[in-house]
Amino acid sequence: MPHSFDRRRFLRQGTLAAVALAAGPGLITACASGGTTASPKAGASSGARRAGGTLRAAFVGGGASETLDFFNGPTPLDLVRARAWHGTLGNLDPTAEYGVRYGVLEAIDVSEDLTTYTLRLRSGVRFTDGSTLTSADVLHSLATLAAGSKLPVFRMASLNFDLAHAKADGDLKVVLPAVRPIADGRLILCQGNFLVVKNGTRTFSTATPTCGPFKLTEFTAGQGAAFTRNDDYYGAALGQGPYLDGLELRSIADSEARAGALTSGAADFVHDLAPVTARTLAADDSVDVVPSRSPYLVGLSFRMNMNVKPFDDERVREAFKLAVDREAMVSTVFYGNATVGNDLPAMGFPDYADGLPQRAHDPEKARALLKAAGAEGMEVVLTTGPETPGMVEAATLYVEDLKKVGVKASLKELPAGQLFADFAAYTRLPLAASYQVPVPALSTYQIGTAGGSPAAFGWKRPEVDALVSNARAQSDAATASRLGTDAQRTLWEEGNTVLPVFKPYLNAQVKGLTGIDADLFEQFPGFSRAALP
Amino acid sequence: MSWAVYLGRRLAGAAVTLVLLSCAVFAATAVLPGDAVSAVAGPDASAAERARVRAALGLDRPVAARYADWAYRAVHGDLGTGFVGHRPVADVLAGRLPNSLLLAGLTLALAAPLAVGLGLSAGLRAGRGADRLISTLAQVAAGVPEFVAAALLIAVLSVRLDLLPRVSLVPLGGGPLDAPRGLVLPVLTLAAVGTAVATRLIRVSAADVATSPYVETARLNGVRGVRLALRHVLPNAAGPAVQALTLTTGVLVGGAVVVESVFDYPGIGRELQRAVAARDVPMVQGIATTLVAVMLLILLLGDVCGWLLDPARGEPR
Q1: From which residue to which does the signal peptide run (chain A) (predicted)?
Q2: Does A222 touch chain B if contact means CB atoms closer than 8 Å?
Q3: What is the tally of structural domains in chain B?
Q4: What ipTM does this complex have?
Q5: What is the pTM of this model?
């Protein structure tokens, strides 16, 4: 992915990834077909694993601004590195009760009124300096570091929990007040980005005491980090790895160069290749291309600005949705390695409105609607940029589709990094390219669309906002699902987003590498359960 | 004019240039659409959050005040910290600049003798077959963009023949010299372009010298071939040649940005590119100003060497 600027991309992802409401059916599929299970019983399958060896994985990275302080480190690699190094409150696991697998916690108790969460710590979790984890450490991690972070990955948690007012209750309990009643808060706290550091930790170095699966031995920003196994890891007793002796995480910004590192034997796993790079790797017998699976897909979309005429007219918006040839995008831009979208984000998550009909490609009807709205022959500029692979190509095809229904459309391509840099200007564009990272549907709505946020491009519907908040406060799953689907139906019918295609993260690895999909945080791989062939 | 006065004037001129260019870079970052807020707070941050981050970064203050502040600190040796990731700019420079200088140094070590040899050979035979061959090749090579040269070298030496690594991975905790094989392709790429540019410049001055009366005299006295080139042409063409090579260094700095990103070489050019994309003003400002200072120093050294090498030198001009 030589042309995209990845910090920005991650920030987009991170903003939305701040939540993970429910572990989707996709994760179940991913785990099942991955040959391991994500439940604590995974230890049972570890008999087939070859223990030992050092795994070398390559990521886009963030250059010299990479940091060990993941509360200030906005690149995916900063987070992947931190997850190898630190203990976590928990991870998503659809096979487990409430959809979460706890890390340093034994359980999270939720009060009757859904406003108080009590985190119960596992006893006997040890840091690498020999000290034992207590509530003071968890409190410091949540109330001081996470609450003070400017990073978007912590935003969803702070929207729902009053992190700064968490309190310790004895050595092994932390009480966390919710901002409003929330039924599925466990899934926000246990999504893998709430890592636990020792009380008082402000700065980070290889000497910092940690309680994660690996111990950091070497770190050079923009180049990489080296780890050895932490034999004292609390997860080891639970059969949760680590199985590797060592781990090396390298930064290689260029997609072709990452693929080259894999094929030349300098890396065992490479993250996020460009579609064309992945296609050339498919012919190589020594490596496997492993695309991320639903729901861990990125939606490519076009946003119509309802503050700009004629997009205030629902018929025009419908016409723009009907005009796009989704199948053509899947086959031309992604060589078939993508899925058709239905103008709603979060496909594959349990709260995604599956039941709605797939919107067809209907240029005739689009033409008729434009005519009825008096917008035939309208002029519009679609603005895009190479922020993620395929984004410009998809926009190029869409402009052609629009011309076919009589719209005088043209494309404006900005240089890498430019599209979102001036966000105020971006939100004033009449028709703008965008993309949605894999985050459950209702959370995506709450972060980017609710309350007439500038990112909503003029969509302002308090009654839909209320429907979404209400859905999230339901302890009954069926009621929550019904309310959530109602909200998404309105969005599907009247909304201002054309979302024609979902694309996977195209990762690749040496044949026989296992266990990476058993430790996913959102779309980012983890290595605590990985084993070399 | 004495030697000390000459040097003093040149240094003062370089300082003024440095100040003007640092202003220009600062102005350029201010004119670019957008700011670092998106990189720090995320594109979906609310207006209030963006305002908070903008204030925290000091971006709500007037450009002139921010520049004055930056310049005051820079003069006192503090280049500040980057907006993104909060690394001190000086740390980033200390980690990356030596790698880039190494790349440039090795490239010059390879390109300089080649360019001098080829430039002299062509210049002495101006208009003849060898000159046409060398000039044509140099012209073609100088016109090939670095990324094309890099792709060709990768295709042949790395993919086809499997001789050299495709990526310049530096061992963790070490430097580029700990994995010397990783330096070969970046150096070859830069040297190809650098040699071509320098050859063409040296050829011109060698051709000038070759038609000068004193070389004509030497020829008439029966001096030929290597002896003519080394004893009579080279000393007179050396000054211009050094200046040609210093100019080539400028070309190398631009090329290094491209080459560093193609081979994923941990140099300063790539960091500059990244900082510009993130609108990380302190990082852009610190790196660009340092690069300008290094360039000015090299140009000054080139001029001094050129003067020292001039057989007809008098007082500094």
Answers
A1: 1-32
A2: yes
A3: 2
A4: 0.71
A5: 0.77
